[in-house]
Design goal:
Length: 377
């Protein structure tokens, strides 16, 4: 069962594990303090029964902090239920029917409402209310504890509801902020952060396949040629339209694993995982031809021709992100240096990939003609 996606999982397993550890440590410390503070007979029973509970609690702390995330998710669901069972057992064994003893059942409910998803928090709340009812039935069967059960259950219910509502608002806010941080508002392309994460997964696979992927990873960098001239001549709204138009063309005929990002200004990047160097060069040439054959429609009805300079970097295997960026940037610089409107030669990423290579630069790809400067209105 996928606990993370179900309504039972923890909203943030790491934070939930830390909170559970502190709650368990405080409970382990409270048991001997309570035992010494109680009357002699009751306190002796508390210490006798609570001592093994302390060791179990401390073992739980170590388990929660050391186990893998997937196992933590299951343990964090079971832990509050075990906490309810432990409190009920300790209360019945020590014959403690006080409201203070019942209030301890609020702790599992508070933890669940704060850190678990809705279904898990509701299950724990109901379990806590049942624990209070069991204590009352076992220790105060004459009905005198009915008011205690009602008061404690009311507190558990209200606390769970309020915390769940606050948690949902918090989750929506976090999701909104993450969406804003991951998407460029103008073009809809992902940001540099998302691109870097995808590159890290492509270049540094957590479990490398035997023999690796011989195709490697390619990064394509591109700039919109004469973007400043477009802004100065036609205004920034037309410049924005040009960027949106280019982003649309980038999405044409791309696979689901291709990541397209806007790095800033008119610079964009395309990550092509599991792609050979010749395939990346062919893809870049097709992109250049597509841009040249699809001018930007203007509000006046005329078409504005656009051009791009493209650089291609290729990594044959795992390596730092910086090296692949440097290779693609060196290729893009070569395309600009040769007159723009071209695809630079594919550069293979290496620990040092300078813009000016020591060996002669291969000829640039010049399939389509160079884009002309935008006409003066």
């Amino acid at each position: 069962m996928d606990w993370a996606r179900s309504g039972l999982g923890a909203r943030n397993p790491r934070a939930a594990a830390q909170t559970a550890s502190w709650i368990l440590l405080l409970c382990a410390a409270a048991i001997p303090v309570t035992g010494f503070a109680m009357p002699r007979t009751t306190g002796q029973w508390t210490l006798l029964i609570g001592t093994p509970v302390i060791f179990v609690v401390l073992a739980g702390v170590l388990m929660i902090r050391s186990l893998p995330t997937a196992v933590q998710g299951i343990l964090l669901i079971v832990a509050p239920l075990l906490g309810v069972a432990g409190v009920v057992t300790l209360n019945i064994a020590t014959h403690d029917p006080s409201a203070g003893a019942q209030v301890m059942l609020c702790l599992p409910a508070l933890f669940a409402a704060t850190h678990l998803k809705t279904l898990g928090a509701l299950i724990v709340a109901v379990f806590c209310m049942f624990g209070v009812a069991l204590n009352v039935a076992m220790l105060r069967p004459n009905g005198g504890g009915l008011y205690d059960w009602f008061d404690v259950s009311l507190v558990i219910g209200l606390m769970t509801g309020v915390m769940l509502l606050g948690g949902r608002r918090h989750d929506r806010l976090i999701a909104m902020l993450e969406a804003q941080a991951s998407r460029d508002p103008l073009t809809g392309l992902v940001t540099r952060r998302i691109l870097d994460e995808a590159m890290h997964r492509a270049l540094m696979p957590p479990v490398p396949r035997q023999g690796g992927d011989a195709r490697g990873t390619a990064l394509v960098l591109l700039d919109l040629d004469h973007f400043k001239a477009i802004n100065d001549t036609y205004g920034h709204p037309v410049g924005d339209d040009a960027l949106v138009h280019l982003a649309t063309l980038l999405h044409h005929d791309t696979g689901t694993d291709v990541v397209i990002a806007r790095l800033g200004g008119d610079e964009m990047a395309v990550l092509l995982p599991r792609c050979t160097a010749p395939t990346a060069q062919e893809w870049a040439r097709a992109l250049l031809a597509r841009v040249l054959s699809h001018p930007l429609p203007m509000p006046t009805g005329a078409d504005l021709p656009l051009g791009i300079s493209v650089g291609v970097g290729h990594s044959p295997g795992p390596m730092p992100l910086r090296d692949l960026y440097a290779a693609a940037d060196a290729s893009l610089y070569a395309a600009k240096h040769a007159g723009r409107g071209q695809v630079g030669p594919t550069r293979t990423a290496s620990p040092i990939a300078p813009r000016e290579a020591a060996t002669p630069t291969p000829p640039l790809v010049r399939n389509p003609p160079t884009v002309r400067d935008p006409p003066t209105p």
